[in-house]
Design goal:
This protein is mostly beta strands. It is built from two helices and 19 strands.
Length: 272
């Protein structure tokens, strides 16, 4: 009977040991069962970009582990980068995506931004990077006018000087000038003044809308046979620069093959 009792005790002890080992193995298996993120690449360079565009890149990864991966949070290092990611659980062997969109507007120059991915994978925290160079956008007249907080006109002339070279005395010379309004309020041309009283102006319109343009034609008639310079004044409602000066000049000579005679109020031109 003693031998039988000992045998039962040994069998029970062996069973307890086997159950303990099995439990430990199952516990260890549970601990090591976890998803793992494996990205194709963790960095992307966009190269050179034009300012004002939105660019995106998708970082792909595979779950190489043996448990589903759930992404809990994705954060960007600045407000200029917007991340999107797979909201559903990524099963073992399946692919997931992290999409990063960068806004280049108002951000000329080099950039290097990070996107941090938090999940329940073995690599709980993964940092991705996007980089590139944004080329500054050239401002247009519309950009300049929209950039001003207060509505105001602004006169802009690319050319304000004209030298006619050698010219005959009393010969009328013509030159057209373009006036642009780069402000965000109507530009009013209020007065045109010739310093020497020898220039006549022809203006297509007196009010120039924002972003608009007008042609000013000047007819310059020199009255002396000598180098001459005329200042022609354009007065507008541009508060920062209400007076614009246009300079006309010429090297004037007398043509002695022609003679002028005055008889009362009549001028006669005789050709020799």
């Amino acid at each position: 009977m003693f031998n039988s009792t000992m045998k039962n005790f040994k069998d029970s002890f062996l069973l307890i040991c086997l159950l303990g080992v099995a439990s430990t193995c199952l516990s260890m298996t549970s601990v090591y069962a976890q998803g793992t993120m494996k990205f194709d690449t963790e960095k992307h360079n966009f190269g050179e970009l034009a300012e004002g565009v939105m660019v995106s890149y998708e970082f792909e990864f595979v779950n190489t582990g043996n448990k589903p991966i759930k992404i809990s949070k994705v954060t960007a290092s600045c407000g200029c980068t917007t991340p999107y990611w797979s909201k559903e659980a990524i099963q073992p062997g399946k692919k997931g995506k992290i999409k990063a969109t960068y806004n280049t507007t108002g951000r000329p120059g080099n950039f290097n931004k990070s996107i941090t991915v938090n999940s329940n994978a073995t690599n709980k925290l993964v940092v991705l990077f996007i980089s590139g160079k944004v080329n500054r956008k050239k401002k247009t007249y519309k950009d300049i006018s929209n950039g001003s907080a207060k509505a105001a006109p602004k006169l802009f002339m690319r050319n304000k000087i004209k030298h006619f070279g050698m010219t005959e005395n009393r010969l009328t010379l013509r030159q057209a000038f373009e006036i642009r309004n780069t402000g965000n309020a109507p530009l009013k041309i209020e007065k045109l003044v010739s310093e020497c009283k020898c220039t006549v102006a022809n203006l297509t319109q007196n009010v120039v809308p924002p972003g608009g343009r007008v042609m000013l034609e000047l007819m310059f008639t020199p009255t002396k046979a000598e180098p001459i310079q005329e200042s022609f004044y354009v007065y507008t409602n541009d508060t920062k620069s209400p007076r614009t000066i246009i300079t006309l000049s010429a090297d004037v000579y007398e043509n002695f093959s022609r003679t002028l005679f005055r008889r009362g109020d009549t001028t006669l031109l005789l050709e020799r």
